[in-house]
Every structure is written in structure tokens, then in C-alpha cells.
Amino acid sequence: MAVLEKGSPHRASRSLSEWLHDERVRSVLYQAIVAIVVIAVARYLFINTSENLQARGMSAGFDFLSTGAGFSIAWSVLPYTAGDSYFHVYLVGIGNTLMVAFVAIICTTLLGFLVGIMRLSKNWLIAQVASWYVEILRNTPLLLQILFWFLAVFSLLPRPNKSLSLLDLFYLNNRGLYIPAPVPGDGFNITLIAVLVAVGATYAQAVWARKRHFDTGQRFPAFWTGLGILFGLPLLVFLVTGAPLTFDYPALKGFNFLGGASVPPAFCALLLALVIYHSAYMAEAVRAGIMSVSHGQTEAAYSLGLRPGMTLRLVIIPQAMRAVVPPMISNWMNVVKNSSLAIAIGYPDLVAVYMQTSLNQSGHAIEIVAMVMLFYMSVSLSISMALNYYNKIVQLKER
Amino acid sequence: MAELTHTDAVFTPKPSQPPPPNTVGVVGWLRKNLFGGPFDSVMTIIGAGLLAYFAYGLFQYTIVNAVWEADSYRECLDVTQGAGACWAGVDKWMNNYLYGRYPDAEQWRVNLGGIILAVWLAPFWFEKVTQKIAVGVSAVLTYPFLAGALFLGGDNGLFMQAMSSVALTLFAAVWLNVAACYSGRRSLGAVLVQVTGFAGKDDRLYKWVYLAAFAVGFVVAFIFQSTWNLAPVQTTNWGGLFLTLVISGIGISTALPSGVILALGRRSKMPVIRVFCTAFIELFRSVPLITILFMAVTMMPLFLPVTLNPDKLVLVIVAVCIFAAAYMAEIVRGGLQAINTGQYEAARAVGLNYWKMMTLIVMPQALKLMIPNIVGNFIGLLKDTTLVSIIGLYDILLMVRASGQDPKWLGMHTEPMLFAAFVFFVICFAMSKYSQHLERTIGGGYGRR
Q: Which domain holds residue B165?
């Protein structure tokens, strides 16, 4: 009746080879070997590093962060003047990276949806155009596209005194893109508060409409109401408080534009290249997502008497989103990561100002590389956490 | 009732009418696919207009107004006024786009290396050839040494000599095997056994036959390659498309094996191994390639002993391999997760151990399932290789930029970039089409998932 446990019948009398063939012993052994090798390599690298640092007369540590960086940064979202600390440079770099990535993510999502739907169009020409757009963009390197937009488009724009202009409000020339800058007056804060209130109210009414729909079966036009609240309330408050917002318009003074807000050509080129390149990937995600909803779903919805618009909104899109969102979010992550190619055209993003300029000046390679990697890792970890959360919500609830 | 039963009436259907003329043929196709409704028609007209405009512009720029013969960009501009491409400059720089600063007189070595690789791998596409896996493995493991010896030239030490001799021997073996297979034999091994008269003897003696044959081949190859007298070419002179293909080729060929190991490690039951693999994968997947490259060229030299003084190209290749392995690991893991647990259990039930289960049952299915992703990853790697230009390796992209800064061709940016884009597009598009073909032929072989 003795139940023989695998590999451990008579512990005392086993030979060495028997002992080595025990799966659990082996498992421990393998892990120990791996751990020892990793630790040995780490120790080896550490010793080398400290010797190298000593030979170069450098010290490791984050003390340099508080010392002043002697260089200037061409353009930054956060205020910066030459002589601010290296830590400030780090923050400025993060600001610039997030700025371009954020705008690119919004634009690329919109463009990607458009192209993805175009690829599924019944119109042969439109579908072909969209599919070649995707093929060409996906099969050429992003860096090449960035350089193309920068060197072959934005660098060849006219000088400021011959700028391209739109409505005399927006100007585009080889120094960058100039747009009117909003200048908030007294009491503009009230409008901002109204925006927050409107967002809350929209959410509340959406929840209420959903509950009512579930309880009574009656539909409530939550989308249009929400849109009304979202834009109407702030606008109303804005007008009631006397429209406390003026614009600072760019104007040509001498050889350059003054006033307004401006972004450098490198920003425009990078943004355009990122948006166009990733929109091709986004389009593929959208197309694959919509294709993943079987035609039977459409037929079932029609047979229940839903109109085509409602079928799309209530049956197809909710199911397609389940397949679209994960690749879409990983695409967003790629946008953030690929914005680091800014360095090739001199847009001062995190990698350019911190990993290149600051590293060359201070020489603290290990600390700086670690800090930059830390930033990208925390962005990507938070994005993948959001993704996991989303997946948990939309997972098919199977009984 | 009776009259009805023996009626002569036979049902003869009228011949069906032809379909309405506007639903068949060219008109029908046009109506269905381009002019299905007012909105559709408007879209078609707008789309066709835009397409014609761009196609006409591109045609004018690249062909009609282009200049094919000139000595400087200034000359081109005088002729075209900027309305046409200056292909003369691209032509003058072509050698640099392809080979970088590799000496003209030595470029045959690069070509020869490429040809050897193509010939080595060609048996993959021969139907009768057996042991295709051996062809692939031998090429991946030993070709880099042969190519390295060929491209570098000079004296690279005994190890490189030995390894390139091994490569030459295996290369010969691959093609002798092809010859054997096409002359009706089972494989090169069978022929060797027969020729030496060991046929019918103990199977265990066969491996000594193989080994002896290999040793003979090795000695011949070693003597052959020791007669080479190749001029040394520094890696700093490597460049252009050649360098791009070297870096991405090494990255691609190491990505799959290391990705498989990392993926298995991440799914392992041993916590220490799992933690290390997961940390490695997540670390290198979550940061951009450019930061890994910077790490390689700025941080790696600090990590290594001063005496080692590694080549920049080697550091970059290591960085690219790490990056590629981390991405590939996640793809392989996706494939492993898609395999039904029943497959694992069945493999265990017939008594296979872990490695046999993985190599014979699970991996073949998982990798087949993941062919589109794997090839997609290869394409991505080839494109990402252009990032090495940022840290100053003269790959095709940096050569393109350099040609626009050449005093004679100052400002020539668009034309070389169009050329480079065309090169990348052709390679990547061919790869993606081939992967679709593979997916159709071997990917869905089992029909059931």
C-alpha cells in the first residue's frame, strides 16, 4: 500500500546518480547554477566598473544631479534656462518627450481609425489606396521617414518673411510653426472649474442613462446630451464671466515672428512622421479588430430588427473594441518609445538632452542611462497595467 | 385522377435570362466597387483625383524632369530648378550606399560572402533535400565566422581560422548532401557509409565514419583557407546597406534561438530562472532601442575590463541582439500559450521528457502559429537597424545623410532618401509576402487549432 512519491522512495540508500536524476533536486541545482552565474557576472561587472571609474577619476552617485548644466535647450515645454540643474534637464526632457508623444497619440489614433475603416471600404479604389498607404509606411524605417519630413519638407520651407500662412493666424516657415497663444484673463479659472464640473456631470448622466436603459429598456441619447454638457456648460460659464481670454497673435517683426506660441520644425517633422507611421499600424489593428467580429453577428442583429447604424454601434463596435484596444495601446507605447528618435533631427527630447548632451558633459553614464530607462519603464509599465485592467473588464464572461 | 398520373407534361424550364447588363462585366464591376451610391461615387472621384495628382507629380519628379548625368548638385538644380530628381548624385554615391567606405578593390569579398550565404541556404527550397534543419543550423552557427574572416581579412587568430574551416567543411557537406539526395540516395551520411564499406555493420560505428569524413574535410579546408591572403579592412570602414544587413542579419539569426530560451525560461516552474528571464524581457522591451544602443556604447565600456577595448560594432551588435531576443521571447511565449494544454499532457503521457516535448511537439506548433509575428519582428528589426546611424555607424541611412553634406552634392536629401526607402520597401515587402506564403503552405497545415 505504500504510495511511492516520485523520486523519493528511500532517501538514505540512493546513489549519487539517482539523486541527480531527481527532478526536484535538479530544479534546485539548475536554479543555484543560474543564480551563481548571474551573481558572478554582476560582481565581475561591478569590479570592472569601479576600477574603470577610479582610473578615470570619477565617482559614481547622483550628486551631479544638483550641479548646474551649462548648456541651453533649443525649445522646451517646461521653463528652462542654461545653468539649471541636471535634474531639471531631466524633467525638461521628459516634458518634451511627453508633449510630442501625447499629441502624436491623439492624432495617430484618429488617423489610424480613418485609414482602417477606409481599408474595409466596399469602394475598391479607397480600399486599395488605404492598403498601399499601410504597406508603404510599414515597410520603410521610421527614422528614414522622420529624416524625410525634416530634411526634404520642413527644412525647405520658405524663410519667415515669405511664410505660408493660414487665415493670417497660423504661419509656417523654416523656423517652425507659429500659432496664436491663448492668454487667460481674470476669472478664467471659473471656466476651468466649469470644465471639471461638466466632465463629472457627463459621466454621471452616462451612468444614469445606462442604468435607466437596463432597468426600463428605454434608450436615452446619452452621447448627444453628454456632448452638450461637455461643451455647453464651459462655454456658457465662459460667456457669462465675460469671455476672459485673449489671444496673442504671431506677427512678423524684422526677420522673425514675435508673439504667439511656436514649435520648431523638428517638432513638426517628428510629430508628422510619428503620426503617419503609427497610423498605418493603428489602421491594421482597427481592420483586424473589425474583421474579427463574425458576419453572423451582423445577421443576428438584422434579424432582431436593428437598423444598420444601431447594429454597428451596439453590436459590432463593442465587440471589435475588445480586439482593437490591446494592439492600440501597445501602439501608443511604441509612439512614446519611438519619440526617442527625435535625437536624429535635434528635437530636444529626453534622450537628446539627457542621454546625449548631459551624458557627454557630466560623464555619469551609468546613472543617466539608468534614469532614462527608468522613465521609459515606468511609462510602459503604467500603460501595460492599464491594458491589463481593460482586458479584465472586457474579457468574455463565460459561464 | 388517372388522367393526371400519365400525363406527358414534362417540366421544361425556360432558359434563364441573362443578368442585367449593368451588373456584369466591367460596368457591373465599376458599379459594384466604385460607384455603389452617390457617396461612393464622390469618394471615388475625389480619391482618383488625388491619386492621379500624386502619381503625376511623382512621375514628373522622378522620371520626366530628372537629371541622370551631372557632376554636382548645382548643375542638377540649374537644369531642373528643383522640379526634378538628381539621380546623377545617387549614381555617383551608389557604391557608398551599398558598401560604405569598404575599399573598392576589396568589395568582391562582400559580394562573395553574400553569394555564399545564398548558395548555402538555397537547398531549403529544394524539394528532395533531406535534413533541412541541419542546413539552417550549420549556416546560423558557422557562417558568421566565415563571413567575418572574409569581410575583416587580415589575421584573426587560430580560433577564427578553425571556425571558418568548419564553416567551409559544412558548406561543402550541405551541397554534397544535395548531390546525394538528387542522385537517389537518402543523404550524404548514407553515401559516406556505403563508400567506406561500413554499410550493414553496427550502426554505432557510423558516427565515427561521419567524424572521420568531417576531419578530412576540415584539414583540407584549413589548408585551403590558410592560403588566403586578404587585406585587413577595419570595421569602421564597413558601411552602407552591407553594414545594415550584417547587423540585422546577426540580430535576426540569434533572435529566434535566444527568444525561445527566454520564453521557456519565463514559463519555467523554477522561480529563480523565471524571475531572471522575466526581468530581462520586461527591461529591454520597455525601453526604446536607442537607449539600449546608448547603453552599449557609453555604459558597456565601463563594465568591461580596460584591456578588452571592444569594437563599437561588436557592442552595437550585442545591443541589437539583446533587443531582438527580448521581443522574440514575447512572441514565442504567445505561441506557447496558444498551444492547447492537451498537447503538453499528451506529450508527457507518451513518456517524452521536457526537452523532447518542447522540441518535438510544442515548439513546431507554436512557431508555425507565430510565423506572421516572427517575420513581422524580423522586418521591424531590419528597419530598426537604421538607428545605429544615430550613434555614428555608417549604415545606409548615415551614408544617405552624408551624401547630402558632400560639398559637391550639398542639399541632396530627397533623392537618396527615396532610394533608401525603395531599397527597404523592396526587402521588407518581399519578406512580408513570403511570410504570407509560408503561412498558407505550412502554417495552417494541421487545420485545427
A: 105-232
